[in-house]
């Protein structure tokens, strides 16, 4: 009976596999739009008309959900943050070094209504949700969150555009000034401390970008290992089973931890215990 049952199961499974393969082939034949499944759905870099983005060196950070499209050049130590779009499809975009494009910011160009590429200099901070459209932003500038700089505008160096401001098309913002409002107007001259803060803001974001770059480069295995290690440390600490030789323990025995709590102690690594013993003997002599 067992032999007959196994033969029936094998025959049925083979028939089902053939039916499944036939259905898959039929589905491919009637498919109108081809679908390709990707391991990572987001695409950071996209070519347009055969022109691909250029990112200098390996010390940049482009977030997984950011999009850098077409004729775009990004300098060293610059970053494009989560959800941001840098789209050079009808003209060229140049981003200098140590510059950051904030979360959900949009950088675009113009071709139909005026020929305006976009140039962003060095040590520029573009705030979250800002719109930089077909304009020129020189070195050491802060464009605040949700601010807009429109076609043909020029922002000179050592300048701050306040959050939510609208720099209208063709406007030139002189160096050393704070502009705000919609449309944006000169608010006042910047202080020496405020001008220095522009470079500091770019540097602080650069350091944060390094951290995010390292974290985003980790694979699935590393993330699982780190999560397990954090949970392990938490449970041992809460349960009192974590032995730290630097913390005095009234139940400690000869510097090896309390009996029954031998995690991460020299009892689990005898060679470490020998090293400790030799160091104590040298210190006593």
Observed structural traits:
285 residues, eight-stranded mixed sheet, 4 helices, 31% helix, flat
Describe the structure.
- Strands 1, 2, 4, 6, 8, 9, 11, 12, 14, 15, 17 and 18 form a twelve-stranded parallel β-sheet that branches.
- The chain has helices at 2-30, 192-216, 220-239, 270-284; strands at 45-46, 54-55, 61-62, 67-74, 79-80, 85-95, 100-101, 106-108, 118-120, 124-126, 131-133, 136-137, 141-143, 148-149, 154-155, 159-161, 166-167, 172-173, 177-180, 185-189.
- It is of the alpha/beta class.
- The chain is built from four helices and 20 strands.
Low-confidence stretches: none
Cα Rg? 30 Å
Distance between the termini: 82 Å
Q: What is the percentage of strand-forming residues? A: 15-25%
Main sheet summary: 12 strands, parallel
- Helix proportion of residues, in percent? 25-40%
What structural class do helix, strand and pairing data support? Answer: alpha/beta
Subunit arrangement of the protein: single chain
Tell how many strands the DSSP assignment holds: 20
- What integer is the average pLDDT? 84
Number of helices: 4
Order of helices and strands: HEEEEEEEEEEEEEEEEEEEEHHH
In a nutshell, what does this entry contain?
This protein has about 280 residues and is of the alpha/beta class.
Give the SSE map.
Blueprint: H1 2-30, E1 45-46, E2 54-55, E3 61-62, E4 67-74, E5 79-80, E6 85-95, E7 100-101, E8 106-108, E9 118-120, E10 124-126, E11 131-133, E12 136-137, E13 141-143, E14 148-149, E15 154-155, E16 159-161, E17 166-167, E18 172-173, E19 177-180, E20 185-189, H2 192-216, H3 220-239, H4 270-284
Parallel strand pairs: 1-4, 2-4, 3-5, 4-6, 5-7, 6-8, 6-9, 7-10, 8-11, 9-12, 10-13, 11-14, 12-15, 13-16, 14-17, 15-18, 16-19
Antiparallel strand pairs: 19-20
């Amino acid at each position: 009976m067992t032999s007959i049952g196994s033969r029936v199961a094998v025959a049925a499974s083979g028939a089902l596999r053939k039916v499944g393969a036939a259905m898959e082939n039929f589905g491919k034949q009637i498919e109108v739009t081809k679908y390709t499944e990707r391991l990572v759905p987001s695409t950071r870099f996209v070519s347009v008309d055969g022109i691909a983005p250029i990112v200098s060196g390996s010390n940049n950070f482009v977030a997984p959900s950011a999009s850098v499209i077409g004729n775009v050049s990004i300098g060293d130590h610059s970053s494009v943050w989560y959800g941001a779009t840098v789209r050079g499809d009808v003209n060229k975009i140049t981003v200098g070094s140590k510059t950051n494009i904030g979360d959900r910011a949009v950088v675009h160009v113009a071709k139909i209504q005026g020929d305006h590429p976009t140039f962003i200099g060095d040590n520029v901070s573009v705030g979250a949700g800002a719109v930089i459209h077909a304009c020129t932003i020189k070195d050491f500038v802060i464009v605040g969150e949700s601010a807009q700089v429109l076609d043909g505008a020029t922002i000179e160096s050592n300048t701050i555009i306040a959050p939510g401001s609208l720099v209208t098309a063709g406007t030139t913002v002189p160096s050393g000034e704070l502009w705000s409002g919609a449309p944006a107007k000169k608010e006042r001259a910047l202080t020496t401390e405020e001008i220095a803060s522009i470079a500091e803001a770019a540097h602080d974001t650069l350091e944060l970008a390094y951290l995010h770059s390292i974290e985003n480069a980790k694979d699935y295995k590393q993330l699982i290992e780190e999560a397990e290690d954090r949970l392990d440390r938490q449970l041992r600490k809460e349960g009192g089973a974590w032995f730290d030789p630097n913390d005095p323990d009234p139940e400690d025995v000869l510097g090896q931890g309390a009996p029954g709590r031998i995690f991460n102690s020299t009892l689990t690594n005898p060679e470490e215990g020998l090293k400790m013993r030799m160091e104590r003997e040298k210190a006593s002599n």
